[in-house]
Amino acid sequence: MKLLSKHLRALVTILATTSMSLHAQTNYSGPLLVVPEAKGHRLVLVNPTSKSIVGSIHVPGWPHEIAFSKDGRTAYVPSYSDAIVGHPGIDGQTIDIINMQTGSVITSWDLGKPLRPHKPMLLDDNTLLVTTELANSLSLIDINTGKITAQIPTGAPQSHVFVKTSNSKKLYTANLHPGSVSVIDLLSRRLSKVIPVSDLIQRIALSKDEHWLFVTDAKSQNIVVIDTASDTIAHTILTAEPPFSLHLSPDGRWLLVGEDDGTKGKLEAIDLQDLIVHHTFDTDRLPYGIATYKDEALIACYLSGNLDVLNLATWTLEPPILNVAHGDGINLWNGPKE
Question: What is the distance between the alpha carbons of residues 30 and 45, in angstroms, rounded to a whole number?
Fold first, then answer.
């Protein structure tokens, strides 16, 4: 028995040493798809070429969305909540900072009070912009100190996600259950206008030329199109089911729309030359996150945890990547820049 115990201790020591050695040798490189899973407290990493899971990064908070530094070495991951928008739950107040190469948490910023921080975006001046919907605002955070330096009121609750023009002059927030879009003047950091759209909206996207803002009307079967020159509603586009998620194809011609009818998911492709749906595909339930890599669209389906794969060159569905994560966001990490 003593000899057996000795061998067991030796085996445990070897396994522990090997595990630490493997962990120390972790050196991720892009491109990788990153799928945040809030209830799993992790970011799942998927190689879009081999269609395989290559690792996961465990984080303290409840991650929904992610932003990367300009050099690709750091990720900023707000901790939103263990609940969905508008529902009671634990209100997040931190942002986890991740070393993407080693897959380790560097630190966590405490924002001082519960704010449910969500959509992050790194601005050109080393400032992280993040939605803080419990304060009906966007918050600007100094990435050197992790402290909020200013807040911009959105004029509405549940300002969940946003898009920004390329010249950083204007920003639009999607205010979910109010069903409105806030227009923010980023230069003056002031609210310019609130545009009523519906009883509930979900996601927004800008056209490549930034002339159109697309808004998913979750109470109907419409994409509402806002003219960004006048910030007024100009068109609606009919979809098969109430739309949820939006993503532009790399060439900017197609608007990909994730939908769900309660029994199955759908992905539709709208040609922005005529604003008409040209392609429709059945997907797994709740196609909440969409990203593109080369000539493929990867769709994160929340209920199954699978990534559905659409070939944009042939407009055909390819075999899905199974059991990735139950996440409602997905982003492409291109790896560190030298």
Answer: 10
